């Protein structure tokens, strides 16, 4: 799972370099300064640009799975009719007002902004693989949702074998996989 | 449907108790038919359904819902099948499918402690069991050998023969609890129906950490293993057969049961002996449904106790951050307990309890909390790792006393086939609440010894339910007070027997499955005694599965 994710990082080259778009084109100087590692990340389709920029800001990850990004974008767009416009509006607001991602939710909540639900929707999609509300919630990702990826050096997602019988008796070794 | 219309023994319910009783009877030559309301389900599909589930903290979510055999579900909203009469909600969960509710369980396979069966004599509360612990020992042993139970001898439940398997290896986190809580609290390995080596044709645990909702690799014993063992012994199982009435003759002997197919086609199945093994809610429901002119209050109900004395194990808990990285989620979900409060003179005053440490991965709950708090940017990953490594939880498993007011009745609401739904009347008494209060002192001490910060107690006066549905068909020696005799035979019907957790007269402090299986094996032995008793046999029935 981890190997596959590493190979499928956002930084994959597109099939046709002449059509290459990079994330920097969707950012201002301020937001670019928040995610300097992501500036050269290709963006597959122009309509993904704002979503991927916002995702990079919220998730704070060096890499995001390009294939999953496309699927989450489509699912969010289908579920929430104003998703594309809201995403662009929130990115613009962050750019213009220089909002730190760590303060974003509190700022939106305090202002009773109509955009307040958006960051949680995007994070829930990336981190839990879930899109939608209540009974209409759909699971888009599990093994490659960020909550699994972030701890993949120590834990396996439930239902996946941890290792040979008794391997869990060893101390966990963060960063280097499990002890053997 | 080309299903049998008669059998020597008809069993209602294909859970672990009904199936293992059926198997035992078949091995002794009886022709046995099991009628199961729910469908056959497949392990691989359940695993896939869980991975694709939008509600991964709801362990019922991967299990299919059958309109003809409804089961209670509470998320994303209460499906209203188990009607709540109050005053305290009783959100019991169970699975109606071939194999029953132990498709998902923690596989904790505890014995009682000896004083549990004498609680009235010793402490003046509850009722005594109609048997001694010593009488139960060989049936426990047989159950443990069939299920493949791994355990240690330091849990307070004596035994004459060794466990089939050594305890499952401690996860690192549980070892640290054991080391840091000693000597104040002895942390012991749970007694579990989980393989610590290959056993019964099933592999050792490989730590999938999804014992609930589903063990993907068959390392823990499930009801479906019992069904397959019963079928191998010659038992016929009919799925999607919703029994809705039990029929008797003028003398009170049971003559037949009636069941619906999903399209409501009705069938009648005759038999010589009958076992009701449909769990502590569906079994009394069926007895109450089968009322007749001769038995206007339902079958087996001369005592008026059918459905009464409903018990379970409520839990309150403490969640906190330990001061070292423990990373719950490595290995099986339920590995360790503190057993010192399961018995003592205090039982005259307040509930006994077991203290249970979870080893369920904390990643899901931590992630949900971070999103709710709006923690974004690089801090998200940092916080996720910090919390997932340190967040731990300890809960009590509290004893509930039998109280006739806590009961299952028939609701005026009906299910899709027109069968009345079960209705739960439930409360949690002061005896149990006092036990919860005492356990808070243990919680605080445990947190202190683990360098705990960020202590979060479960809300005051609120309890989680453990789905150990107990007591609605209680066994005892007085026909005026109990539904069945000491062998699970209905006092009112000489050829009707009951198997399952419902027959337990008290709930004690252990997960109830192993005790119910031991009693079911004992009931089956009573129904069809072995023709030649083999003196010195290792197991009571001599029919256990061995490795």
Can you walk me through this structure?
- Chain A is mostly helical and 180 residues long.
- Chain A has one domain (2-169).
- Chain A is 44% helix and 2% strand.
- Chain A contains eight helices and two strands, in the order αααααααββα.
- In chain A, β1 (130-131) and β2 (138-139) form a beta hairpin.
- In chain A, α3 (49-59) crosses α5.
- The longest helix of chain A has 15 residues, at 83-97.
- Chain A is globular.
- The two termini of chain A are 19 Å apart.
- The model of chain A is unreliable at 1-18 (pLDDT under 50).
- Chain B has a domain at 1-51 and 92-148 and 221-313 and 401-423 and 467-541: FAD/NAD(P)-binding domain, CATH 3.50.50.60.
- Chain B has helices at 16-27, 43-51, 119-123, 133-147, 172-181, 223-232, 279-289, 363-373, 378-390, 430-449, 513-527, and strands at residues 6-12, 32-35, 83-87, 187-189, 236-238, 242-248, 254-260, 266-276, 314-315, 317-321, 336-338, 353-357, 391-398, 407-414, 420-426, 453-457, 464-465, 496-498.
- In chain B, the strands form four sheets. In chain B, strands 1, 2, 5, 6, 7, 8 and 18 form a seven-stranded mixed β-sheet that branches.
- In chain B, a hairpin with a 5-residue loop joins β7 (254-260) and β8.
- Chain B is globular.
- Chains A and B meet through α3, α6, α7, β2 and α8 of A and α2, α8 and α9 of B.
Short description:
The complex is a heterodimer of chains A (180) and B (547). With 180 residues, chain A is mostly helical.
Order of helices and strands of chain A: HHHHHHHEEH
Low-confidence stretches of chain A: 1-18
**Which oligomeric state applies?**
heterodimer
Q: Under CATH, the topology of the domain at 1-51 and 92-148 and 221-313 and 401-423 and 467-541 in chain B is which?
A: FAD/NAD(P)-binding domain
Query: Structural class of the secondary structure composition of chain B?
Result: alpha/beta
Indicate the overall shape of chain A: globular
The largest sheet of chain B is: 7 strands, mixed
